[in-house]
Design a protein that fits this description.
single chain; 280 residues; alpha/beta; TIM Barrel; eight-stranded parallel barrel; 12 helices; 44% helix; binds the ligand O=c1ccn([C@@H]2O[C@H](COP(=O)(O)O)[C@@H](O)[C@H]2O)c(=O)[nH]1; Aldolase_TIM; EC 4.1.1.23
Length: 280
């Protein structure tokens, strides 16, 4: 049996817990800072600590796959355990793996993360559309079938993203806007929220020249370590701010390894976000 669509599950979680997404990004420097070894044991302790501290209070946890893949198959085993434990504890899990390839290979990535029986099944997956949006079709189809979601890189938080995403097409629209248009079409008619989201950086300043009304979630990394703040959200996203899922990774994780300090940090960001949305 497939799950209720991701968009509906996410909207409920946002209403119940607030929209904050905390990243599980076990940087080597953070492992050291937490007094952990830079090995699989340290990785597992780090990830389980974050999950135990936060999975029952934030809407979304976002493991960054790269930091687990770094340790090979045993790192992937920790990732698999993390996804299962976090989901069982009540958080939605967005797998940040940014997959993208030709359609036939994309189908295998989709099986890996979006098939309901897959060991790494996640509530949603980040994907790259830069082999053409159409190459993501197998992931879109399997996500629909499983009740999962996607977050498509549209306007990323890093300064280098513009050279691709701001490139102007023959029809006058830029590439980022084109991705937003595809997502709006995917989500048309869905209530209370579509399952096909965009990644749009909180670092990007005024985005009023973009139509962010895609009837889907906007995953917004960049708060904390990359310099954006919760108070920037209304200015960046305008009316679309109610669909924003702000991500903070290092900004929270740097307060570990104590669980109370992790919780207090996440609660502070959640409160700042709540205040920013209330005044928007
Ligand atoms: O445009 C993007 C897309 C993804 N990310 C990811 O989000 C987190 C941000 O971590 P911070 O420590 O809060 O900077 C990280 O996993 C990135 O890979 C992004 O930053 N920007």
């Amino acid at each position: 049996m497939s799950l209720e669509p991701f968009g509906a599950r996410l909207r409920r979680a946002m209403e119940d817990r607030g929209p904050l997404c905390v990243g599980i990004d076990p940087h080597a420097s953070l492992l050291t800072q937490w007094g952990l070894s830079d090995d699989v044991a340290g990785l597992e302790r780090f990830s389980m600590t974050v999950i135990e501290a936060l999975a029952d209070r934030v809407a979304v946890l976002k493991p960054q796959s790269a930091f687990f893949e770094r340790f090979g198959s045993r790192g992937i085993a920790v990732l698999e355990k993390s996804v299962g434990v976090a989901r069982a504890a009540g958080a939605l899990v967005v797998m940040d793996a940014k997959r993208g390839d030709i359609g036939s290979t994309m189908a295998a990535y989709a099986e890996t993360f979006l098939h309901k029986d897959a060991p790494l099944f996640s509530d949603a997956l980040t994907v790259s559309p830069y082999l053409g949006y159409g190459s993501l079709k197998p992931a879109v189809e399997l996500a629909r079938e499983s009740g999962a979601g996607l977050f498509v890189l549209a306007l990323t938080s890093n300064p280098e993203g513009g050279e691709v995403q701001h490139a102007v097409r023959a029809d006058g629209r830029n590439v980022g806007a084109t991705m937003l248009g595809h997502l709006a079409a995917e989500n048309a008619g869905e209530t209370p929220l579509g399952s096909f989201g965009a990644v749009v950086g909180a670092t990007l300043g005024d985005l009023s020249s973009y139509d962010l009304d895609i009837n889907g979630p906007l995953l917004a990394p960049g708060i904390g370590a990359q310099g954006a703040a919760a108070s920037d959200l209304a200015g960046v996203f305008g009316a679309a701010v109610r669909n924003v899922v702000p991500n903070v990774s290092r900004g929270v994780l740097r307060h570990g390894p104590g669980m109370i300090a992790l919780r207090e940090s996440a609660d502070r960001f959640a409160e700042e976000i709540r205040a920013a949305l209330a005044s928007a």
